[in-house]
Design a protein that fits this description.
It is a single chain. This protein has 407 residues and is α/β, with parallel strands linked by helices. The chain is built from 12 helices and 7 strands. The chain has helices at residues 4-10, 18-37, 42-71, 82-89, 94-110, 117-137, 144-153, 158-174, 178-189, 269-276, 286-305, 329-343; strands spanning 203-208, 224-229, 233-237, 240-245, 248-253, 259-266, 314-319. It is elongated, with a radius of gyration of 36 Å. It is a multi-pass membrane protein.
């Protein structure tokens, strides 16, 4: 059975800053070696290298700008200004221009320290032009990791759009009414044993990694049986009056044949991912589908954690496809999550502990005995409370001088 720790290990975490740290370390080492070998020419070589690295992307931006201005100025930019939209889109941002300008200024100031200045300028021109050629034909294009990092950072993946659509178009609309629907369901079925645990009153959302979704849960596991539907929620949506949203109640049987009721369903956007992986025009294979399912889970989890309307009304369950040989894997996973949520309940204000025996407390030596003997201290019968008086406040007594001595 899949444990909760294994589920957390499957979810990819956002990429960190380790590449930047490694790049800074390599740069520091290279500058240290170059400074030790030729300290007088270090600034000139650094300026030349920065100028080469920035001039190549700027020339490549000129090629992109020619395409955009000639064929896409009206369709993609809708007549917007050249400086504010088209130039930044082609790579002429503030950072590349500033870096190239500072490198050119530094090279002008310390250029006399470089040997063979004519060859250095030839190297600058050839390197920039070859960079533009290789970048255009795809040799120096971004790697898959860089593309993935850009898409995840800018929320451009298919999974991000599906997660937001699933939340805004479904979960945010129905989850606030889930508890009232369950109460109405229990009242109409006249049973106090339904939905006994706190976890069973949440919407369990199943997400298989392979995105294979069965329309009937009993076809996946014979220990799961359809019981009934919750009362319909009718919401006016996108011009449709009284659009119906519903949830299904299932009975899940454990190994001891004890029945547990819960509201469970698959995440329907995974059907889209599964169908896309079987369409040639989508360009979406099985590895990409699996990665998008994990991103969908992580994105939806982040969205719901910050949603006040959906808080404590859902449970996301990631199903690993490595346990398909177990015919009761689905029921065991559901019951495990129900049991976990049930054990998470705890009493915030536990009742006070009552002593079975009255403890004997010895009074101070100066205290007189009561009724000819010592008494036992009674334990508190209830929690201490604040007591307020309804009397009006009285003024403080003035001090009275008393010079008489006490004999």
């Amino acid at each position: 059975m899949q444990s909760l720790r294994e589920q957390d290990e499957l979810i990819p975490r956002p990429r960190g800053n380790l590449p930047k740290v490694c790049a800074l370390g390599l740069t520091a080492v290279a500058l240290g070696i170059a400074g030790a070998l030729s300290p007088k020419r270090l600034c000139g070589w650094v300026a030349m290298a920065i100028l080469i690295l920035t001039l190549g992307p700027l020339l490549h931006g000129v090629c992109l700008l020619a395409e955009e201005m000639l064929f896409h100025a009206n369709t993609r930019y809708r007549g917007r200004r050249l400086l504010s939209h088209m130039l930044p889109a082609c790579g002429f941002g503030g950072k590349p221009l500033l870096a190239a300008g500072l490198a050119g200024l530094l090279l002008y100031l310390v250029g006399h320290s470089l040997p063979n200045q004519e060859q250095c300028w030839k190297l600058l021109v050839l390197t920039s032009v070859l960079y533009t050629l290789f970048r255009t034909i795809g040799i120096l294009g971004p790697s898959e990791v860089e593309v993935s990092d850009i898409c995840e950072g800018r929320r451009m993946n298919v999974a991000h759009g599906l997660a937001w659509s699933f939340y805004l178009g479904y979960l945010r609309l129905v989850l606030p009414y889930l508890e009232s629907s369950i109460e109405t369901f229990c009242a109409t079925h006249r049973s106090t044993q339904l939905f006994g645990g706190r976890g069973s009153r949440k919407l369990l959302i199943l997400m298989p990694l392979n995105a294979k979704i069965s329309h009937k849960l009993e076809e996946e596991d014979d220990r799961i049986r359809f019981y009934d539907n919750l009362p319909n929620n009718e919401i006016d949506r996108a011009g449709v009056r009284g659009r119906v949203y519903k949830h299904s109640v299932y009975r899940v049987m454990d190994e001891h044949k004890k029945v547990h009721e819960c509201v469970v369903e698959y995440a329907t956007p995974l059907l889209t991912l599964y169908n896309m992986s079987h369409e040639r025009t989508a360009g979406f294979g099985d590895p990409e589908r699996r990665q998008q399912v994990l991103l969908f889970f992580r994105t939806l989890q982040d969205i719901l954690e910050h949603s006040l309307e959906c808080r404590n009304r859902y449970k996301l369950i990631l199903l690993n496809d490595e346990h398909e040989d177990d015919p009761h894997f689905l029921s065991k996973t559901i019951l495990k999550h129900l049991d976990q949520q049930q054990k998470e309940e705890f009493c915030l204000t536990p009742p006070p502990h009552q002593e079975s025996k009255r403890p004997f407390v010895s009074p101070p030596p100066s205290a007189p005995p009561m009724n000819g003997g010592w008494t036992h201290v009674e334990p508190m019968s209830r929690e201490p409370t604040l007591m307020f008086s309804n009397d009006q406040p009285q003024p403080l007594k003035e001090p009275v001088e008393n010079t008489e001595s006490y004999h």
